[in-house]
Amino acid sequence: MTRINTAANPAGRTPGMGAEPPTRNQRLDRLPFNRAHRKLLSACGIGWAFDAMDVGLVSFVVAAVAADPHFALDDAQRSWVLSIGFLGMAVGAMLGGVLADRFGRTTVFTATLVVFGLASGAMALSWSLAMLLAARFVIGLGLGAELPVASTLVSEFAPATHRGRMTVMLEAFWAVGWTLAAAIGYFVIPSTGDWGWRWALLIGALPLAYAIVARLHIPESVRFLESRGRDEEAERSVRHFERASGVEAPVASPYRHVAVRPRTRVRALFSARYRRRTVVIWLTWFFVNFSYYGAFTWMPSLLAHQFGSLTRSFGYTLLISLAQLPGYALAAWLVEVWGRRWTLCIFLAASAGMAMLFAGSGSPASVIVFGMLLSLANMGAWGVLYAVTPEIYPTGMRATASGSAAAVGRLAAIAAPLLVPSFLAASDGDKSVAFLVFAAAFVVACVASLLLPERAGRSLED
């Protein structure tokens, strides 16, 4: 293990010789990526994967529930089961961000796991459409709150030179969860009879148990602790990460006796300083969500209609899902090479192109190839979007800003599945019109992303 002597400050001068001791955030920023970062990333990432597994599962569950004689959902009812979850995610994202800025990132992160774990179990036991919708809404509350909180927490512990890559790596756990959902959809739902979709949802309740692990192993954000005047806890947390890098005789940072900050209001995001970046990041989130959730929540049903087999559709969707991990891996590398803005823009442009090609795909081979390329490009964009959002705001409003951007995105995620039946009607049941609309939305997101500020390699604003 590399031994690092931090008796000197970043400028190479020792305290006591006219130099100010480094702040805790400076000490975190100059650390290499170490085992404490890996542990944090894994702990948050597992929760992230559970989120993805649940969102992915519902696309398979809806197709199976529609075929269940007890429910026999029509297209409009299917759309509502998909969209009601995103309504919950919109509310949850906004509430989760505000609560995380008030009560702490780790506390809210753990609570979200409990909420959507319990609700997944309730949805598995649903006996009516009303109960399906109610449970799905509550699941959305938990899911929506977790994602912006987890990305904020990871970004606040990541060293400046690794922050983009770490956040993209966190988002890469989405691919793990979505692939698990596709595997459950392909292997569990068709092979377990009428109860197949219920067993799938019971698997989705596993976050309830993981919440205990998360509470014990995920530290609270140093920046949040300092903003609340909890200096001793902040110092212990920094020392934990320094020890993981072999730091010898760390220099304690000065205590900052700060007044507790007032709660951040959403209107602060539209102050003169932050108005432009808020509008731009909201536009990007809105159109990325519209395209992604419109395309991928309906994909199993659309492919089942195109090829006449639910099982074949689930298999094709599983293959398409496997391309997500390479997309994240590519984005994790490029985000620190090209920067956030250009990496995001290029992935969104590629997503638009692949959506256009997927719109006209007719054979199984073309569906799989263009679907995988769309999946790769879209997931790369998602990774960068989660990296850039928390780092363009200061600590006091970071979780609120991330949550509000995610909430705006979820509004698009509500609308897109509801609009898909209209797109299908316009093309006699074919997927072409839907994916051409999604391609246009990717173009709008691409243009908006060019206006984002570039923060690669820079420390987070306190």
From TrEMBL:
GO molecular function terms listed in the Swiss-Prot or TrEMBL record: transmembrane transporter activity
Main subcellular localisation: membrane
Localization terms from the record: Cell membrane
Signal sequence bounds: none
GO cellular component entries: plasma membrane
Domain Major facilitator superfamily (MFS) profile stretches: 40-457
Domain of life: Bacteria
Family matches, as Gene3D superfamilies: MFS general substrate transporter like domains (1.20.1250.20)
PROSITE patterns assigned: MFS (PS50850), SUGAR_TRANSPORT_2 (PS00217)
Keywords: Membrane, Sugar transport, Transmembrane, Transmembrane helix, Transport
Location of the region described as Disordered in the Swiss-Prot/TrEMBL record: 1-27
Name listed for the protein in its UniProt record: Sugar transporter
Organism the protein comes from: Bifidobacterium mongoliense DSM 21395
